Amino acid sequence: MHTLLVAANPDPGSLTHHVLGRLEAALQPGSVEIADLSEERFDPRFTPADRRAYHEGGNYPADVMAEHRRLERATDLVLVFPVYWWSMPALLKGWIDRVFVNGWAFEHSPASGLRPKLQHLTTHLLPIAGDDSGAYERHGYESALRTQIEHGIVDYCGSRRGRTAFIYESEQLSPEATVRGVDRAVRSISEAIQARLAG
Q: Is the keyword Cell membrane in the record (predicted)?
């Protein structure tokens, strides 16, 4: 069992990074690796080379192949990210665009259709939302985010759906409520991963 935590927030003092540290600690003594996309300066731009690799199903750029190797070592993937405009940050979306590609995360052709390839992986989501849960429910934001990521990405690539644990009201003035939200989310994700390890 090996868990890869992927974070996308440019501020090392952010709540995202605090949650990342808490989650890493909660998963000890298990095997955990952190991919801090901002610190590592991952380039999210989908280039002509990425487009060619997508169509050919191979010949991936070197930085993409390095991410493939990290993911191939992992049994669990946790995406830890602030919600921007009711979705993931552009940096994380660009990582998915470039890394979860045809020939590696799935194979698709007009003749054979879709063949998902990430069955070895369980993907968990830890979105950090500025608004409260009521707003997410009233406007359908949580449902939309889950559909986009859980169904549109995780299911499409054949990864198992893990736990999704929102932290709401991350910008409120009540630090006690934020602490409780972080505690709940970290416990939810870490317990799901450790239950798989015990099973």
A: no
